[in-house]
Specification:
This protein is about 40% helix and about 15% strand. It has about 325 residues and is an alpha/beta fold. It has a 5-stranded parallel β-sheet with strand order 7-6-5-8-9. A 4-stranded parallel β-sheet has the order 2-1-3-4, with helices on both faces. Bound molecules: N-carbamoyl-L-aspartate (NCD).
């Protein structure tokens, strides 16, 4: 595998191999006083972020550093992008500097795929492109860390149910979760106000429901999504008020109590407490949010090893 732009770059076996490697890395690092493996010594990776990020950028950087790679971080605000440099020129510049992988977050759907095409036209020579979230399109490393968290609790996916709640329309996490969890054998249910569902969702491999309470009773995990106001145009209104949104689609203490005891509450972050997730729910033992974050480092280590070494040697 050269790039990870979409969950469609994986098949079931390669997705499971990434999860297995992430689990192996997690347990082997737990026993170490010094969390440093030599696997990517002498290799250079760049994080190239055109949108804000806390979890994704820092965990990719940590993953690279724990593998001994040289990690260089670039954000649009502090680079020549501010001076008008194009994405293609920036990508070519970083390749000329020596980037072997570009971890890219961009507001435009398709930007990482376009970069892969420009910088590695034959699919062999050129840097690996890792999509760290592109517009409303995909966020594959997030879906992998969600799947790892789910598997650590439930052992597998077959016959299990993931309920994704909230702003599906603007969410790249929802799209990648759907592709990955359905490939792994889980049922995915989207719950959202009709205004926050994409056109054509009925053709996607998911079930759509408007009744959160009915879906919670037999859920194995609930993934709550932030309402992404930054992707809405000024004056657009998708629901009447935050209060009404929280009442219909927010994860309250009462809804938490309705979940099966072994079900988990997930959130890709950043959480808006009081809106899609209640304060007590976010801090409850069933919340797996920080476990997701921690898994993110190991999943991203597994991605870097797989793309840069082509094998599973850690
Ligand atoms: C998500 C993203 O950026 O798509 N966050 C993340 O990467 N952990 C979701 C969000 O911003 O709400």
């Amino acid at each position: 595998m050269k790039h990870l732009v979409s969950i469609n770059d994986l098949d079931k076996d390669s997705a499971i191999a990434l999860l297995d490697l992430a689990d192996e890395l997690k347990s082997s690092l737990l026993e170490r006083e010094i969390r440093k493996l030599p696997t990517l010594r002498g290799r250079t990776v760049f994080t190239v972020f055109y949108e804000n990020s806390t979890r994704t950028r820092c965990s990719f950087e940590t993953a690279g550093k724990w593998l001994s790679a040289d990690v260089v971080n670039i954000s649009a605000g502090s680079s020549s992008v501010e001076k008008g440099e194009s994405l293609q020129d920036t990508g070519q510049t970083l390749t000329a500097i020596g980037a072997e992988a570009l971890i890219v977050r961009h507001p435009n759907s398709g930007a990482p795929a376009q970069l892969a095409h420009w910088l590695c036209p034959d699919g062999i020579h050129g840097p690996s492109i890792i999509n760290a979230g592109d517009g409303q399109h995909e966020h594959p490393s997030q879906a992998l860390l969600d799947a790892l968290t789910f598997r650590q609790h439930h052992g597998g996916f077959e016959g299990r149910k993931l309920v994704v709640v909230g702003d599906i329309l603007h969410s790249r996490v929802a799209r990648s979760d759907l592709l990955l969890f359905s490939m792994l054998g889980a049922e995915v249910v989207f719950v959202a106000p009709p205004t926050l569902l994409p056109v054509g969702v009925e053709d996607w491999p998911c079930r759509v429901s408007y009744d959160l309470d009915a879906e919670l009773r037999d859920a194995d995990a609930v993934q709550l999504l932030r309402v992404q106001e930054e992707r809405m145009k000024a004056g657009e209104a998708f629901f009447p008020s935050v209060r009404e949104y929280a009442a219909l689609y927010g994860m309250s203490k009462k809804r938490l109590a309705a979940l099966p005891d072994d079900a988990i509450v997930m959130h890709p972050g950043p959480m808006i407490r009081g809106m899609e997730i209640n304060f007590d729910v976010a801090d409850s033992p069933q919340a797996a949010v920080l476990q997701q974050v921690n898994n993110g480092v190991h999943v991203r280590m597994a991605i870097l090893i797989t793309l840069l070494t082509g094998d599973r040697e850690a």
